[in-house]
């Protein structure tokens, strides 16, 4: 029964992340990519469900967003990059140290920014990969800010999701 509950939570958070990301999608012609709000869903899933939930929500939503938005060349990279981003962030979010949440945000962001710089360089050119760094930094800063506000709100309403962390 617990596995079924986790699968439903992962599916719901993936669907929510994909829908929110597709509602607010900003193309970046210089890198043949785009900026979305997917970090909010990935980091929220990592916070609520831990590393495994964060990995699967990141991987599935990253791939589906690329598929539905018309960027199929990015699917494999997004599955790997966003999956690792959510898994690593979730690992640190589960730990009870003083700065673990900040380390989770920072490490997840670094994986995403560096991963997409290399992927852009591989698919297009290295100058395009370097150009992608700024947009991905902005996307992560915005995602971290919104996720922090969301986590604060969830703590106030005391939802039963992952009671250990909230």
UniProtKB/TrEMBL annotation:
Family matches, as PANTHER family: UPF0397 PROTEIN BC_2624-RELATED (PTHR37815), UPF0397 PROTEIN SPR0429 (PTHR37815:SF3)
Family annotation (InterPro entries): ECF_substrate-spec-like
Keyword Repeat carried by entry: no
The organism's place on the tree of life at top rank: Bacteria
TM spans (from-to): 6-28, 40-65, 71-93, 105-127, 133-154
This protein's UniProt keywords: Membrane, Transmembrane, Transmembrane helix
Protein name: ECF transporter S component
Originating organism: Enterococcus lemanii
